[in-house]
Amino acid sequence: MGAAHALTMPSEKALKAYAEALAAEGRMHAAAKLINEYLATNDGGWGLWHLFAQLSKRMGRTALAVTAYRASARQLEAAGHLKHAHAALKSALRLSPADVSLREDVARLAPKPVKRVVLECVTDPHCPIFDILDDEARS
Question: Which domains does the chain have, with CATH numbers?
């Protein structure tokens, strides 16, 4: 890529905003083409992949939407946004419920249940922790 091309390349945020505006006008194919051309030569962020997935879904291109949701989820997971990555994979799974590897990825990123432990000591006024707290209060 030459220096002139790098200078004319829109920011990812601007590209996403323009594609969203095209989609709002009903020009989904133009929006998808714009994003696809960018993603073919650049490592787009999760937001572009997510928008591309939504556009692909609306255009009936299910396999492409699933692939884009997966790409979005990978980027979100790498950034530590596990809940959002899980949501992206669930969106893909709704489109392709028979995909075993997708089911495994959804299960892998599913929020783990939090175990709540009730300590009997907390309700017992003779528990040593209360003695420690009383001593600190007196100091």
Answer: 3-112 (1.25.40.10)
Task: Give the integer Cα–Cα distance in Å for 46 and 39.
Answer: 11
> From the centroid of its chain, how far is CA 105?
13
Residue in the block written with tokens 């997510």: 50
pTM of the complete model: 0.72
Compute the Cα dihedral for 8, 13, 15, 21 and give only its sign: negative
Beta-carbon contacts of residue 99 (< 8 Å; ≥ 6 apart): 66, 92, 93
Tokens for 26, please give them.
């009903």
pLDDT, tens digit, 9 for 90 and up, residues 19-43: 999 999 999 999 999 999 998 888 7
Q: Average pLDDT for residues 103-108, to the nearest whole number?
A: 94
Contact between 55 and 31 under an 8 Å Cβ cutoff? The reply is: yes
Output the DSSP codes for 118-131: --HHHH-TTSHHHH
Residue 43: its H or E element: none
